[in-house]
Write a structure and sequence with these properties.
This protein is α+β, with helices and mostly antiparallel strands and 435 residues long. It is built from 14 helices and 16 strands. It is elongated.
C-alpha cells in the first residue's frame, strides 16, 4: 500500500489492506446450508473449498479432537447445527490440522452477521509461529489443571438456556452453541449408557434440580457415558447451584469428569474381593454359601417363571481311601481336577458348579427338567470314570438329581436331592439316581 499521511487514508485503502492480509473470508447462508469462499491463502487453500456444505464446515472447524483432524463420534455431530447459529459478533481461536499435515495451526475466527442476521461472514487468520508457541504453552498449563474435565457449561433453568460450553477434547476455549437446556438434555441422554438413562433424566430434570439444590450446593453421581470417540467410559456428572441470595435464581454449573481409569481399577479390585468371597479357595468353583444362594435363586426362578430347574449333587466314591493311601496333597490335587471337569461341564450346559463341602459338589441347572438333568449327569459320571488321574489313575462318583417344584422350599428340595445321591451310593456307587 502506498505510504500516505495518516489523515489521507480512506475506507477503500483499509479494505484493500485487509483483503491483502486476511487469510480467508467465507460467506455463509445457514438457511440453505451453504458457504462460499471469497478469499483463501496459505493453509486455507487446502482447508477450504470454493463452496460447500455449511454443516460440513462446522464439523471441520469445531467437531474434531484437539490437535487432530480426526472427527468426533457421529453421535455428537448432532450438535453441529446448534453450533453454527450466531446472534451477534463472535470471535474465538481454533486449532486446525490439515489432512496430510501433522502440524497444528492456531487460527483466529471472527464471525460478522449480516444485518438481517440470517447470513454470516467468517474471517479467519492463522497466527505466526511465535504467537502459536506462546498460546500452546499457555494451553498446556491449563490442560495440566483441567485434563480430567471433559465438559462444562453454565445453565439457567428459568431462562432454559445454556452458555459458556467447553468441550476440552475439542477445544480449550468456550464453544458457541445456540442451545436450550431442555433440548441439550434430551439430546445428550442418548450418549448415556442405556441402563443409566432413567437416572440421568431424573437427576437432570429442572424440577428435581430446583427442589434438591439450595444455593451453593454441589452434588455428583457416576455413570457410563459415550465419549467423543464413541466408546462408553465411566464419568462423574457434577451439578453445582450458583451461590446467590435470590431464592428464585436457578443457575447451575454442570461438569463431566473423566474417572474411567480409576473406576476400572476399582471395579477390578472389587471383582477380586467378590471372587474371594464366593469362590472355594482350593478348587475355584463356587463355595458352599454361594452355591446355596444359586440353589435358592433357581427355586425362585422356578416359582416365578413356571419353568423347569434341576440340581445335581456329586459325591466322590471312596475318597477317604485316597487321602489315607496317597496323602492329603494328592487328595487336594484330585479335588481340583474334579472341579475343573465340573466347571467345564457346567459351562457347556450354562449351569453353576460349587463345592458343598469335603468331596461333595452341587451343580444348579436352570431351564432343565429331570430328564435333561439326568442325561447331563450320566455324561458327567462317564467323564469322571474315564478320566486318568495322576497317581490314583481312576475314580468314580455317585450323583443324585432332582427337579425343583414350585411348591418346594429349600429344605424339601435339598432333602430330596440328598436322598437321591445316597441312593446312588447305596446301590453300588458310580450311578445316577433321579428323585
Amino acid at each position: 500500500m502506498e505510504n500516505k499521511n495518516l489523515y489521507d487514508y480512506t475506507v477503500e485503502d483499509v479494505s484493500g489492506l485487509l483483503l491483502e492480509n486476511v487469510d480467508a473470508i467465507v460467506v455463509v447462508d445457514p438457511s440453505i446450508d451453504t458457504y462460499k469462499t471469497l478469499v483463501r491463502h496459505g493453509m486455507f487453500e487446502s482447508f477450504l473449498k470454493e463452496s460447500g456444505i455449511y454443516h460440513d464446515l462446522i464439523l471441520d472447524l469445531w467437531f474434531h479432537f484437539n490437535d487432530s483432524n480426526e472427527k468426533v463420534s457421529g453421535d455428537y455431530q448432532i450438535f453441529a447445527d446448534k453450533t453454527g447459529i450466531f446472534n451477534g459478533k463472535y470471535s474465538r481461536r481454533l486449532k486446525l490440522v490439515l489432512e496430510d499435515d501433522h502440524k497444528t495451526h492456531l487460527v483466529q475466527l471472527t464471525v460478522y452477521p449480516f444485518e438481517d442476521a440470517k447470513k454470516y461472514i467468517f474471517v479467519l487468520d492463522e497466527f505466526i509461529d511465535s504467537e502459536s508457541l506462546q498460546e500452546s504453552l499457555t494451553t498446556k498449563k491449563i490442560n495440566t489443571i483441567q485434563n480430567s474435565y471433559l465438559f462444562s457449561m453454565y445453565i439457567d433453568l428459568v431462562a432454559d438456556t445454556t452458555s459458556s460450553i467447553n468441550v476440552t477434547e475439542i477445544s480449550d476455549d468456550v464453544v458457541n452453541y445456540n442451545l436450550k437446556y431442555s433440548d441439550w438434555r434430551m439430546m445428550i441422554v442418548n450418549m448415556i449408557w442405556p441402563e443409566d438413562q432413567e437416572q440421568f433424566l431424573r437427576r437432570t430434570d429442572p424440577e428435581y434440580l430446583k427442589k434438591n439444590f439450595t444455593p451453593g450446593r454441589t452434588s455428583s453421581y457416576d455413570c457410563m457415558m459415550r465419549n467423543l470417540e464413541g466408546k462408553f467410559i465411566w464419568v462423574k456428572l457434577i451439578f453445582s447451584r450458583a451461590q446467590t441470595y435470590n431464592e428464585d435464581d436457578y443457575r447451575f454449573v454442570f461438569m463431566v469428569q473423566d474417572i474411567n481409569d480409576n473406576s476400572l481399577e476399582l471395579i477390578s479390585t472389587l471383582q477380586k474381593y467378590e471372587e474371594k468371597a464366593i469362590k472355594d479357595p482350593l478348587t475355584g468353583v463356587y463355595n458352599h454359601g454361594e452355591i446355596e444362594t444359586q440353589f435358592n435363586n433357581a427355586l425362585t426362578h422356578c416359582q416365578k417363571n413356571d419353568g423347569p430347574a434341576s440340581v445335581l449333587m456329586i459325591d466322590l466314591d471312596m475318597f477317604k481311601q485316597i487321602n489315607d493311601t496317597y496323602g492329603h496333597s494328592t487328595g487336594d490335587t484330585t479335588l481340583k481336577q474334579i472341579a475343573r471337569i465340573l466347571m467345564e461341564t457346567a459351562a457347556e450346559e450354562k449351569a453353576m458348579a460349587g463345592r458343598w463341602g469335603g468331596e461333595e459338589f452341587v451343580i444348579v441347572c436352570r431351564d432343565k427338567d429331570a430328564e435333561s438333568a439326568r442325561v447331563m449327569a450320566e455324561s458327567l459320571r462317564k467323564k469322571v470314570e474315564e478320566y486318568l488321574f495322576p497317581e490314583i489313575c481312576h475314580l468314580t462318583c455317585s450323583i443324585g438329581v432332582t427337579e425343583l417344584k414350585a411348591s418346594d422350599d429349600f429344605a424339601e428340595a435339598f432333602n430330596r436331592l440328598d436322598k437321591a445321591m445316597y441312593a446312588s451310593k447305596h446301590n453300588g456307587r458310580n450311578k445316577v439316581t433321579v428323585l
